[in-house]
Design a protein that fits this description.
alpha+beta, conserved putative lor/sdh protein from methanococcus maripaludis s2 fold, OB fold (Dihydrolipoamide Acetyltransferase, E2P), 5-stranded antiparallel sheet, 4 helices, about 20% helix, RND_pump_MFP, MdtA-like_HH, MdtA-like_BSH, efflux transmembrane transporter activity
Length: about 375
């Protein structure tokens, strides 16, 4: 027992000494605070994606034309007896506008009526005689034919009397009076021009390049360009695509495109007035693909696709993080490139793409837009 105690005492002393040394060493090391550094957000130069399908706003010289127009005529010859409407006067459908001197036509009607009555009487007698077998069938047939001829002549004479009066075919305004009272006119000679007042047309001329992209069916097009009348530049009117010619003007080689609008109730918008039609071309033209313009330096090939025939751009999402979008390069023009996204929904007009230095950026990297360029 006496031999063990010195050994235990020596072990205890050594253990305490070692513990003291470790404690002193631990206390002598400096304490380091663990502070997490914030990631550095890289500034990048960005550009706005622009459509090349014609979305630029274009202004066309425009002319007001009547939507509904009629050149009124008499259908028989004669001397004008009365003009019941003057130029600029508003008229209603069915209203009498002009009459001819109808004396001659009334006499012709009276004569035709007399011949018709005579023919009917002769036919009645011939019919009775034929039943009694007192006349040949040819005589009976002749009497019947005379009735038909007389009836036709009576109907023509009666119609000619009606043709001595011109009535308004629709509500409108007399735009132009082309004859005077007591003037002798020929059948189908224009005597006045009547225009409808519920709507007006707005006509422009476009090039064959624009014409080729207009839709064949305009019924489902809801876009409404803006028309500004030269004499009322503070007023803007919405118009709707109505129709277009399919043959060009021989002199200008341009095509006529017509828009329609309701007639303003508080102003006179008359045929022949001029103005400007402001059109967002991509909203009215048919396009087969979504083509965009971006800076040429925005196009690059990421390292993971090295050696492959692919091209990409980085666009920014709502959180300003990069999104890799595969695109097809259609053409390069100076500092801009026309591209088409492989997946159409992945790139839209007005979105931002990294304009330069894309090869230094990673996918899904947080960035800070530094300056913005236009794609074109």
């Amino acid at each position: 027992m006496e031999n063990i105690m010195p050994v235990l005492k020596s072990i205890l002393v050594n253990t305490l000494s070692l513990t003291t040394i470790v404690f002193l060493v631990a206390c002598s090391e400096p304490v380091v605070d663990l502070v997490q550094e914030e990631p550095v957000i890289r500034p990048v130069k960005v550009a706005e994606v622009i459509s090349t399908n014609g979305n630029s706003i274009k202004t066309f010289p425009a002319t007001v034309e009547p939507t509904q127009i009629a050149h009124l005529t008499f259908r028989v010859n004669g001397e004008i007896a009365q003009l019941y409407a003057l130029a600029g006067e508003t008229v209603k459908k069915g209203q009498v506008l002009a009459t001819l001197d109808d004396k001659d036509y009334l006499l012709q009607l009276k004569q035709a009526d007399a011949r018709y009555e005579l023919a009917k009487s002769q036919f009645v007698r011939a019919k009775q005689l034929f039943k009694e077998k007192l006349i040949a069938s040819s005589v009976f047939d002749e009497a019947k034919a005379q009735v038909d001829i007389a009836e036709a002549q009576f109907n023509v004479a009666q119609t000619n009397v009606k043709y001595t009066t011109v009535v308004a075919p629709f509500d409108g305004i007399v735009a132009q009076l082309q004859v005077e009272k007591y003037e002798f006119v020929q059948a189908k000679q224009p005597i006045m021009e009547l225009q409808g007042r519920k709507q007006v047309d707005i006509a422009i001329e476009v090039s064959e390049n624009v014409m080729a992209k207009l839709p064949k069916n305009t019924e489902n097009n809801t876009y409404q360009p803006t028309f500004i009348l030269d004499v009322k530049p503070d007023r803007k009117f919405k118009v709707k695509l109505k129709e277009h010619d399919i043959t060009p003007n021989m002199a200008t080689k341009s095509y006529k495109v017509v828009f329609a609008m309701n007639m303003p109730e508080d102003m006179n918008m008359l045929s022949g007035m001029t103005g400007s039609l402001i059109v967002e071309m991509d909203k009215i033209m048919e396009v087969e693909h979504s083509y965009f313009s971006v800076p040429v330096e925005s196009i690059f090939l990421p390292n993971q696709y090295a050696g492959q025939d692919k091209t990409f751009v980085y666009k920014l999402n709502a959180s300003n993080k990069t999104v890799l979008v595969e695109v097809e390069v259609i053409k390069i023009n100076n500092n801009s490139a026309t591209i088409k996204p492989k997946v159409e929904s992945e790139l839209m007009v007005s979105e931002l793409v990294i304009a330069t230095g894309s090869h230094l950026i990673a996918d899904d990297q947080q960035v800070k837009p530094w300056s913005r360029e236009r794609g074109l």
